[in-house]
Write a structure and sequence with these properties.
Strand content: under 5%
Number of helices: 1
Helix content: 55-70%
Shape: elongated
Amino acid sequence: MRPNHEPDIVVRIAADPQMRDLAHLQQAMSALAARVLAIHAAASLFAAALAAVVFALGCIPSLLAGVRP
């Protein structure tokens, strides 16, 4: 059996300038979506960490005072 040397994904950009502009726009939108997703993930992580810190700071004095949940 011969190895397959064909590429898995082929991207073709048409010679028509309008189609090339559309391809560039799609690439730009994909890059923008990736950045937005990364920013959203970072903000979610920050919010979760902040909630954990606030919860811990609220519970520690009560636990030190001997209050049981």
